[in-house]
Amino acid sequence: MSQEQRDYYKPKYQNLEDIPGVGPATKTKLGKLGFKTVEALATAPVRLLTQNGFSEETAIKIVSAARKGMALEYITAAEYYEIQKDKLKMTTGCTSLDLLLKGGLETMSITELHGEFGSGKSQICQQLAVTVQLPEAEGGLDGACLYIDTEHVFRPDRVIKIAEGMGLEPASVLKKIIYAEGYTSEHQAVLLENSDEVIKENNIRIIIIDSLTGHFRSEYIGRENLAPRQQKLNQHMHKLIRLARAFNAVAIVTNQVLATPDAFFSKSPDPIGGHIVGHIAHTRILLRKGRDNLRIAKIIASPFLPVGETPFRITDRGITGDELGV
Ligand code: GTP
Ligand code: MG
């Protein structure tokens, strides 16, 4: 990002208490709801505040004040076009995937990786925790990573190998991955709700949730729990997209596919989470295992990318498209 762009995103108020009408008590109340930075408050739904003890007048006043400094008010399409231009692309470190993604993963939107076990979802996530740290000239975002691991699969030794392969200093790479394990769906949601300060302080430019749906799937069993599950997932995803927009960051979530008996014959297996995850996840990529230990990534849906697929390999040095003739 250029200095000009950085200034554009800089909020008018640095801290919550700088906002007129936000005193220490309000600040604490906002903190409990997960809003500890001006950036997060600027993207907060007013309804969420009024549902939690704020008067409508106060809620509108402080949220709009936070927005004022952040160009989140009504704008013209021309201005919107300018903001769109601020979206950045981040390399995956894998040539074939970057080609499929027309340069890499986009900031300010969510990319969902779904696929069966062993298809490479967690491997890609760990690689992205490294590539985000590359300088902008090398396709990175020169930033840090927030990693929410719900399946206890994150491996620092794997990250070290990937970092070495990219010529980065492993010790410094590990320091720029802020890691948290989510023990339940509730805990995972709370981690994200309270992440804005961490994101701001550490210059986090990618938020990874691996897996988004695992806990939800095992905790909400049965038809009668489908509606509450979808509602919670919906809130979780909305929080994620608001953070990605506020901090011009990439957001990645993983999702397993349902094992249905006829999955082999259907065109593409159904990701867990159904329509809610589908509507909010902007770009959805299906991963599958191919012959000779090859993996295939396929864009299922995206507002800005054509449908297409490409092979990649999982190697000791990470995921790669080298020597695949792509
Ligand atoms: P689930 O989370 O179980 O749904 O699977 P996933 O899609 O997250 O799979 P993951 O990304 O964990 O991929 C696992 C695969 O990566 C394994 O089948 C291994 O073949 C491969 N893999 C993991 N570590 C290494 C490594 O150090 N070297 C190589 N060559 N392959 C590895
Ligand atoms: Mg995994």
Short description:
The chain is α/β, with parallel strands linked by helices and 326 residues long.
Describe the structure.
This protein is of the alpha/beta class and 326 residues long. It is 40% helix and 19% strand. It has 15 helices and 11 strands. It has helices at residues 3-9, 24-32, 38-42, 46-50, 56-68, 77-85, 95-100, 121-131, 156-165, 170-175, 185-193, 196-201, 214-219, 226-246, 274-280, and strands at residues 89-90, 105-106, 110-115, 144-149, 177-181, 204-210, 250-256, 283-289, 294-301, 308-315, 318-320. The strands form 2 sheets. The protein has a 9-stranded mixed sheet, with helices on both faces. The chain has a two-stranded antiparallel sheet with strand order 1-2. A hairpin with a 6-residue loop joins strand 9 (294-301) and strand 10. Helix 8 crosses helix 9 and helix 14 (226-246) packs parallel to helix 15. The radius of gyration is 20 Å and the shape is globular. The model is unreliable at 261-267 (pLDDT under 50). Residues 115, 117-123, 158, 256, 314-316 line the site of guanosine-5'-triphosphate.
Query: What do the pLDDT scores average to?
Result: 87
Strand-residue proportion: 15-25%
Small-molecule binders: guanosine-5'-triphosphate, magnesium ion
Strand tally is 11
Q: What would the principal axes of the Cα set say about the shape?
A: globular
Gyration radius, rounded: 20 Å
The percent range for helix content is: 25-40%
Unreliable spans are 261-267
The main sheet orders its strands as 5-4-6-7-3-8-9-10-11
Distance between the termini: 29 Å
Counted by DSSP, the helix tally is 15
Largest sheet, described in full? Answer: 9 strands, mixed
Protein structure class: alpha/beta
Order of helices and strands: HHHHHHEHEEHEHHEHHEHHEHEEEE
